[in-house]
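Example record used in the benchmark description.
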Amino acid sequence: MKRHKAIMAVLLFFAVFLAVPLEMKGEAATTEMKPLIYDEAGLLNQEEYDVLNTMANQYGAERETDIIIVTTMNPDNRDVMKMTQDFYDDHGPGYDRSHGNAVILTLDMRNREVYLAGFYKAERYLDDDRLDKIRHEISPDLTNGNYGLAFQKYILSAHRYLGIRPGVNPDNILFKGWLHLAFSLGLAAIIVGKMVSNSGGRVTVNRQTYEDASTSGVLEHRDEYLHTTTTKRKIEKSSSSSSSGGGGTTSGGHSHSGSRGSF
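Model output (structure tokens):
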């Protein structure tokens, strides 16, 4: 069973890569790739690294934001949020300048924690709530050890949310393309149905056509009240222990959004 799941994860991984537009792959071959994947924990093979680094470069360029992944075994047992902040201060990532637009995912394998942070443009577009959504989406794959697939979902989701202006619910049905299609098909069906119903002329037969008013009527009517039963039920509150953390400010004075949790 585990072998079957592993095979499926690999197939899904490359299926997502194959879905990347061909023109994007062509651009990747002719432009210099930034190192955006820092796999210090050694979770990825070379092929997975190449795929993810290409995706991060291409999708990040579209949103003018560096999309970064950092994995670590955390030998010094440092706090995952502090590690992310220090990485930003020390490396100075940014699409067009040092310490610019960037979103960072840090994976602490020692404590099995993940932290996501958005800086500058990404702080506005990837606020705490949107980063929470991304983290919740990728956590099951992280738990199951499907790191490559989880990182692909992170890159694609970050790219998607960076294209939706701040303050707008990214899960709004207006942003789901398949619903546009369903709405169009439904509207077309209503129009066609209306045309078909009107094509046969006006219907003049109704209930009164066959009803004999002299013999029709209510024979008997009776309402009987039995009893009413009222019960009370306590509404349980969610007891989820999942933490979301939130944003903060680095030692270098760079504010950021954030989302933190275990996997």
